[in-house]
Amino acid sequence: MLPLKQSEEALKDKRRLRWACRRGMLELDVLFEPFVDQAYDELSEEQKAVFRRLITCDDPDLFAWFMGHQKCEDEELAEMIRFMLSRVKV
Questions:
Q1: C-alpha distances in angstroms, 23 versus 1, 18, 39?
Q2: CA-CA distance, 26 to 78, in Å (whole number)?
Q3: For this UniProt entry, which segments traverse the membrane?
Q4: C-alpha span between 42 and 56 (Å, rounded)
Q5: What is this structure's pTM?
Q6: How far separated are the first and last CA of the chain, in Å rounded?
């Protein structure tokens, strides 16, 4: 029964994560939601922590970073942004 409980917790966590990825901007929604569905499970625990940190950033900053209008100074976040852009085709 323990593996099932872990699986249920993982699903609950992923549902919460998908909810947190719903942004106020469509341009960000089309990046974050498919990434969670398609690639999040493949990330290492360290990468998942970086992703969770990324989604706490403000929408204007995220938009500027993903659209290439500004450079993200945090190298871990910048690497996650590059990875996400390589995985999600819009």
A1: 36, 10, 18
A2: 21
A3: none
A4: 21
A5: 0.84
A6: 40
Domains and CATH numbers, the chain: 2-87 (1.10.150.250)
Determine the residue type at 38: Q
Helix axes 2-20, 26-38, angle to 10 degrees: 160
- For residues 38 and 87, the answer to whether their CB atoms sit within 8 Å is yes
Query: Based on the number of CB atoms within 10 Å of its own CB, is 54 exposed (0-12), middle (13-18) or buried (19 or more)?
Result: buried
pLDDT, tens digit, 9 for 90 and up, residues 28-68: 999 999 999 999 999 999 999 999 999 999 999 999 999 99
Rounded Cα–Cα distance for residues 18 and 21 (Å): 5
Yes or no: say if 33 and 21 are a contact pair by the CB < 8 Å rule.
yes
